[in-house]
Amino acid sequence: MWRSWAQTRKETRNGYKKITDRVAALNDLRCGSITSTTGRCGKPNCRCHQPNAPGHGPNLRLTYKLQGKTVTESLPNPAAVRKAEREIEEFRKYQALNKEFLEVNARMCQMRPSEPDPQSAQEKKLSKPSSKKSPAK
Ligand SMILES: [Zn+2]
User: Rounded to the nearest whole angstrom, what is the distance from the C-alpha of residue 78 to the centroid of ligand 1?
Assistant: First the structure.
């Protein structure tokens, strides 16, 4: 079934709108990773420097980039860890939506006819390319 460019564009536009709506509906997000640190701290008098004492941790922390700088935030309790996990999860959703968004846009670009202005359209008719007819075999 033939579908007009206008109709296809409308459908694609709807898809586009759905994606932007979903992006707008995302919660706080950040691109980061949770890492855990263990070991001894820098304080020589700390218990962790006693013989046979276990090091600190594991301490979880969140690392992310902000304006080109790596920022590290400690995640002192399970609630902080869950919050950071949620933020990273939202970022993954954003990434997926971003991918869809680019795909929809690429499709729109692909489908959009290059509308020549009336004058150059007439010019084209006069100089028709003859590359379509290729000899059989
Ligand atoms: Zn220590």
Answer: 21
User: Would you say the pTM of this structure is higher than 0.85?
Assistant: no
- Give the distance (Å) from ligand 1 centre to CA of residue 61: 17
Which residues have a beta carbon within 5 Å of ligand 1, which is an ion? 41, 46, 48
Q: Do 63 and 84 form a contact (C-beta atoms < 8 A)?
A: no
79-128 tens-digit pLDDT: 999 999 999 999 999 999 999 999 988 988 888 888 777 766 555 555 55
Cα-to-centroid distance, 70 and ligand 1 (Å): 24
Residues 3-37 have pLDDT tens digits of 677 787 788 888 889 999 999 999 999 999 999 98
Distance 52 CA to ligand 1 centre (A): 13
Q: Are strands 69-75 and 32-39 parallel, antiparallel or unpaired?
A: unpaired
Q: Are 32 and 80 in contact (CB under 8 A)?
A: no
Q: Which residues contact 50 (CB under 8 A, 6 or more apart)?
A: none
d(CA 46, ligand 1 centre) in Å: 4
